[in-house]
Each structure stands twice: as C-alpha cells, then as structure tokens.
C-alpha cells in the first residue's frame, strides 16, 4: 500500500528528480502513463517494493527526458 510521503524522511525522492519536460508526442506520453500506472499497480499489489518501483519510475523519467531532448 502506498503511504503518504514523509517530507522529513531523507530516503524519500526529491521533487526535482521527477520533473518531466513538456512532451509533444502524444503516443509517447500515453505509453509513459501506462508504464507508470502498471508500476503503481504492481507496487500496490505488493509485487514490487517501493524501492523497486522508484527505481523503475526513475528509469522511465530518464528515458522520457532523453527522448524529449533528442527530438
């Protein structure tokens, strides 16, 4: 189950790490949203730990940022 972020917990992610640049490609954005939704679902079901979910989401954000920069 997802918990409310603890802003005093130093292990929590910083907001700047997950900022996503504007995406003009609608299909690319839809794919990103589907992937994020699946990760949240797996985390909620207990299939993924919060750390694994964070790692996968961070990777998706990085990939999206790189593809936006290269477009």
Describe the fold and architecture.
By secondary structure, this protein is mostly helical. The protein has a domain at 23-70. Helix content is 58%, strand content 0%. The protein has two helices and no strands. It has helices spanning 26-45, 50-70. α1 packs antiparallel against α2 (50-70). The longest helix is centred in the last third of the chain and has 21 residues, at 50-70. The N and C termini lie far apart (37 Å).
Share of helix, binned: 55-70%
What gap, in angstroms, lies between the N and C termini? 37 Å
What coarse outline follows from CA principal-axis ratios?
elongated
Low-confidence stretches: none
Q: Helix-strand pattern, N to C?
A: HH
- Number of DSSP strands? 0
Which terms would index this structure?
single chain, about 70 residues, mainly alpha, 2 helices, about 60% helix, elongated
TL;DR of this structure?
This protein has 71 residues and is mostly helical. The protein has helices at 26-45, 50-70. The protein has a domain at 23-70.
Chain-wise SSE layout:
Blueprint: H1 26-45, H2 50-70
């Amino acid at each position: 189950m997802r918990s409310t972020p603890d802003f005093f917990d130093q292990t929590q992610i910083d907001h700047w790490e997950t900022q996503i640049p504007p995406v003009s490609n609608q299909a690319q954005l839809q794919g990103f949203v589907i992937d994020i939704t699946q990760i949240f679902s797996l985390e909620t079901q207990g299939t993924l730990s919060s750390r694994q979910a964070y790692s996968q989401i961070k990777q998706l954000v990085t990939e999206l940022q790189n593809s936006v920069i290269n477009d």
